[in-house]
Specification:
heterodimer; A: alpha/beta; Rossmann fold; 2 domains; about 30% strand; globular; B: Rossmann fold
Chain lengths: ~260, ~325
């Protein structure tokens, strides 16, 4: 099988995010970059699919800035065979990203049997690229997947929806599968894996190489700002047994009369 | 005044509340509603009350249940060149469907805005990025229609909605080829509203110490009609399912009331719940970061405070 995985590099979840000087994006100079956490499940699922289908290859594709290639190196060290990087700015919109991924996959010369992605990137939180990519390639897609089994190119997928309910889909290859936490346990890259990753092929393209032009921009962001801070709240001490009941009754009264949420 | 279509989901007569929030905010525009599949007649009356001019019910073979391709094809044909904007609530279904429909038009989409305005015909929205660590203005360009999804509970219901005509009609629609179809639906453990739509959330952290102890929170949630959530620490420790996780690698929520029990308040958790209208935090550590976001902070042991809260709430509810 030709297995593709689309990944993104994002700021670590513990990173404090601040707007840049002119509010056109965030301050990126001192950020620690990681592979988007949901994409780790996609890489792992690709490696599991490869293990179950001998002769398969896993190609990992990323669109983004080049100053740090942590995410691609991690995927190669986990066991992906080769990588494609499409160079762009850090805040490309979903439409351009999907179009660039499509272009890069087509340029590889391999027709995808399955494309795994994370269900969302935790930077712009758009949840658009997997479905857009599927639509552009004329493929079915299933998003927020928490269970995946495959036999002979037929996938059974469980998609998590409201209240933890699961929709069970039957889909034949080729398809786009967007992975959620819980799908699997991503492996750690081994030391030999990390050494081997350095010798694995990494193709680099520009946006125009993969058919993306400035006119493909659809979404414009501006005026990045920190959310308004709330004024300090009221604090109550309920460590002593003596006042616990009165504190609780006071808070309930405030929720009803002051905050008016009950 | 723009021509706007709002995609809505109806479960019988019940339309999701976020649809009414969107309709209220779109007051002054010419707004139609499209619902795919079965729909109760009371749904139309409710939609009219909040301003829907026409309610189009798209029906046809294979449209009785959701599929991204079937719903997408039906909507694409119906939308045609009739609308400038297509709105939807950011529900599980719409988050899956709307990007595909936008792709069918090669059109742009703004995901999960928390507010928006029109300057004449031009949309501008506000949306959180990095799970709410920052906000940004979002604008759309390129082919129309433009697509927008709106986060539930963010706009709020209008106090005095302007009613619309609420004319309803059935539209024969084609699902086209469906390659990914739902074979069955496995019900979740909870029949409660999803975290992203819940009006009240009771959430537990590492200090819950076990999955069994979440029962304490469930009992309080029962009294409040709340949905139970969890922090990443609680999920990673195996105390709660990932579907319950609030935060940057879980769900971003904005209920009216968020009660954080034994949650210290890691930055990625705060990002996911800071837009809650009112936050109550219960923690034994007075220096826990969660208290910086709390409207009402109770320094105390959740295992004594939560049952007392339950008792006190059941007196008045």
């Amino acid at each position: 099988m030709n297995i593709f995985v689309c990944i993104k590099q994002v700021p670590d979840t513990e990173t404090k995010i601040t707007p840049n000087g002119d509010g056109s994006y965030i301050e990126t100079s001192s950020i620690k970059w990681i592979m988007n956490p949901y994409d780790e499940f996609a890489v792992e699922q690709a490696l599991l699919t490869k293990a179950a289908n001998s002769g398969s290859t896993v190609t990992v594709v990323r669109v983004g800035g080049v100053k740090d290639t942590e995410a691609l190196r991690t995927a190669l060290a986990m066991g992906a065979d080769d990588a494609i990087l499409v160079e762009s700015g850090d805040n490309l919109d979903s439409y351009m990203t999907a179009k660039a991924l499509k272009g890069a996959i087509e340029k590889s010369g391999n027709t995808p049997d399955v494309i795994y992605t994370g269900k969302q990137a935790i930077d712009d939180d758009c949840l658009q690229v997997p479905q857009l990519l599927a639509q552009m390639l004329g493929l079915p897609s299933v998003s927020v997947v928490v269970e995946c089994s495959e036999e002979g190119g037929k996938f059974t997928l469980k998609r998590e929806v409201e209240g933890g309910a699961l929709e069970v889909y039957d889909v034949s290859s080729p398809a786009v599968i967007a992975c959620n936490k819980g799908l699997n346990t991503p492996r750690y890259a081994s030391l030999p894996g990390i050494m081997k990753a350095k010798r694995k092929p990494l193709a680099q393209h520009s946006l125009s190489d993969v058919g993306v032009a400035d006119s493909d921009a659809r979404v414009k962001y501006s005026n990045f700002q920190l959310p308004p801070e709330k004024p300090a709240g009221k604090s109550f001490d309920a460590m002593d047994e003596g006042n616990q009941a009165s504190v609780v009754s006071e808070v309930v009264k405030l929720l009803r009369e002051e905050a008016k949420v009950i | 005044m723009a021509n706007v279509l709002v995609f809505a989901e109806a479960n019988g007569d019940t339309v999701k509340s976020v649809t009414f929030e969107i309709l209220g905010k779109l007051s002054g525009h010419s707004v139609d509603v499209a619902i795919v599949g079965d729909m109760g007649s009371n749904a139309v009356a409710d939609l009219a009350k909040f301003g829907a001019a026409n309610v189009h019910n798209l029906k046809g073979a294979d449209l009785d249940k959701y599929s991204p391709e079937g719903y997408g094809n039906a909507l694409k044909e119906f939308i045609g060149s009739n609308y400038d904007y297509v709105f939807a609530g950011a529900t599980s279904l719409a988050k899956d469907l709307m990007p595909r429909v936008a792709g069918m038009f090669d059109a742009g989409m703004a995901s999960e805005v928390t507010n928006f305005n029109f300057d004449g015909d031009n949309f501008a929205g506000t949306r959180p990025l990095f799970a709410g660590k920052v906000l940004a203005k979002v604008e759309l360009s390129g082919p129309k229609p433009h697509f927008v999804t709106v986060r539930p509970n963010a706009l709020g219901l209008p106090e005095n909605p302007t009613a619309g005509a609420g004319t309803s009609n059935e539209v024969a629609a084609n699902a086209g080829e469906i390659k990914a179809a739902i074979r069955e639906i496995i019900k979740g453990a909870s029949e409660k509203l999803d975290l992203t739509e819940a009006n009240i959330i009771v959430s537990g952290g590492r200090a819950m110490k076990s999955a069994e102890n979440f029962k304490v929170l469930e009992e309080l949630a029962e009294v409040l009609g709340a949905t139970v959530g969890a922090s990443r620490a609680a999920v990673d420790s195996g105390y709660a399912a990932h579907s319950m996780q609030v935060g940057q690698t879980g769900k971003t929520v904005s209920p009216s009331l968020y009660i954080a029990c034994g949650i210290s308040g890691a930055i990625q958790h705060l990002a996911g719940m800071r837009t809650s209208k009112v936050i109550v935090a219960i923690n034994t550590d007075p220096d826990a970061p969660i208290f910086t976001k709390a409207d009402y902070g109770i320094v105390g042991d959740l295992f004594t405070v939560v049952p007392l809260l339950k008792e006190e709430f059941s007196k008045i509810l």
